[in-house]
């Protein structure tokens, strides 16, 4: 550290961080402050006043122009030789840095620290305090302090980079940010076993304190293990643009992408309130970071430990609760751009929460699309709570179903790409190579099955939304291939929830909804529930019952074939009695299977009874109709009898008249000829007819 070392650079001594000019142009006892004014403690009256904001410095021209090229031009470059006031409102570092530069011009010892070195360096550059005016000027000395003191210290590098936030663009142009970022990256990528500098660690759960490494105590390094995430807390205090510079430099150094991703998650937890939970950070650290190094729980001591850097620098950071939406948008966009491209570099839960905030804050569409693709790469790791992203457009659905549809499409494209080229590109870590090799086609199938269960749970949750259209529900349910679902119980549960929340659906719409479900993939419990579900169409209920009957028949047939094959081979089964009847087979099945079959039989018998009842009512109506027909016939029958009696009376009268006439002919047969006798009956018949 600068406080304990003395270095000689080109014959110039730097002791205890104090810088002094080799020449003294004016004897003075120092500077004294009176309100907003600084005065030089000397008997010579000041001849120039430098105004910086609301602070004024009453100084002398000669000490300033002898070491400041800019002030030299301002004073002697004007036509008015009596210039006695100079305004420098754009001076980087403000009045504090100019005070140190002015003291240096008067030959007063200046104490350089990590907190003020960046401001003094920018002020020296602004005032043009170069070697052309005086050997060993302020620019040279501040550069030497930066190179040989600050950049060799982890703590000082962090402090200087933090102090550069108010010095843009001077700190960028003078390469202070770049040099500090590379110094931090080099130390972060160093072997943790060789760390000799102070750092701010976070307390490990279950332990009293975290280790504290001191530069002056090299032997402390052997007392415990430094966790691989030791640098997370220190780097997380930086502003987002400087954090991006550090992470970019760390990537160039070749650090593992799991550590980079974990550091990004840690940074987001501090600067984006409510983004991720504490357990997410701890889980990610235990999974991604502690794979090669065990957690450092060997240190002891009472109470929680806090490092010096955290106390000095992090205390100056603005409260994350007060960060505006614009700043949050910039943080999210920057974090998305530096997330490592490797899969599993960050958790899927973190990506989904980041995506939620990106949509809410209206981040650039290109970055949102990139984030959606990243979620699709590891969509099988998502959970339902993070997937329920609200729809921020007013007047629409409760949840953003279209977003989940896009995430699912990205996942399917990724799975199809991996199946097309199962070997893939080799990754850096051997463990990653092992996981990729173990995944294969079977791993892709398992991933699809996990996603199918996740989508079914998501459909069950969003089905309660009355504004959810049938088409969106159906499209999302049918997006996965049939092989992804070995059981459709989750899908049936989602369909039942949708039908319950939308009671006004027509019969056609309910049938359309049920087409996405395969009745043959339902379990016994689901079939029992479906058989008694009044919301399902009758056709679907019949299909469920029929599929259960087919399953039982197949089970009986397969069991019989197995027993027959075992008996033919002469195995142990020949000593066991074969299942001869269906009742015996059902007695050997599980209780839940028997209950399901009993319920199915009961429903079938109920349907048969209702059909028989309808047939009986039909026969009764037919009998009543026949009775009414007979009554109608009886009412019409008396008219027929009266007409027939009248005709019979006429027939009897005609026969009686005929018999009388024949008797008359027999008595007078002698008086009439034969011709007359033949013609008379014909005339009688004609008259009768």
TrEMBL record:
Residues 46-114 form the BTB domain. GO terms for biological process: protein ubiquitination. InterPro entries: BTB/POZ_dom, NPH3/RPT2-like, NPH3_dom, SKP1/BTB/POZ_sf. PROSITE patterns: BTB, NPH3. The keyword Transmembrane helix does not apply. SUPFAM superfamilies: POZ domain (SSF54695). Keywords: Coiled coil, Ubl conjugation pathway. Residues 679-689 have a biased composition (Basic residues). Residues 287-299 have a biased composition (Low complexity). This is NPH3 domain-containing protein. It comes from Opuntia streptacantha.
